[in-house]
Structure formats: structure tokens, C-alpha cells
Write a structure and sequence with these properties.
Elements (H helix, E strand, L loop, with lengths): L8 H9 L7 H20 L7 H10 L9 H8 L6
Organism: Trametes pubescens (White-rot fungus)
Protein name: 12 kDa heat shock protein
InterPro entries: HSP9_HSP12 (IPR007250)
């Protein structure tokens, strides 16, 4: 479950697992917009106000706003599905 104003974990997983080569331009733009919005919401919400599941979700999805790839992106890269 996700906190109010945040992207759901199933949406994040679906976007991360589908290869970029199979996504339409609309899907790419939607993923980018949703990712930026979710990242902004993650940044604005203090850690102390996040649910435990949201803190874990942020760690897995890389919503800590640094240059380190997320665990999900590292996994995609390891199996050849990432852009990096």
C-alpha cells in the first residue's frame, strides 16, 4: 500500500519490469512524469511521517533523490533490461 499522493507499488513494479523497448512513447512519458511526481512527494514528506512500507518502497525504488541507481534499476541492469 502506498501513502496518499504517492505512486502505488504495483504501478512502480509494472513500469520497472516492462522492457523499455516494449513501451510506447505515451508509456515512457507517463513513467517519467509519475516518477518525477512520486520523487517530489517522497522528498516533501518527512521520513518520520512515512509509513514503514513507504520507507521500504522508497529504498527499493530509489526515491532518495541521489545519483545511486535504485535496487530495481540495478536488477534490470543485471539481467540486461536497463538503459545503463
Amino acid at each position: 500500500m502506498s501513502d496518499t499522493g504517492r505512486q502505488s507499488f504495483t504501478d512502480k513494479a509494472s513500469a520497472a519490469l516492462k522492457p523499455d523497448s516494449e513501451k510506447s512513447t505515451t508509456e515512457h512519458l507517463g513513467d517519467k512524469f509519475k516518477g518525477k511526481s512520486d520523487s517530489a512527494a517522497s522528498t516533501l514528506e518527512p521520513q518520520g511521517q512515512k509509513s514503514t512500507s513507504q520507507r521500504v518502497g522508497d529504498a527499493v525504488s530509489g526515491n532518495s533523490n541521489n545519483t545511486e541507481p535504485s535496487l530495481a534499476q540495478k536488477a534490470k541492469n543485471a539481467v540486461g533490461l536497463g538503459n545503463n
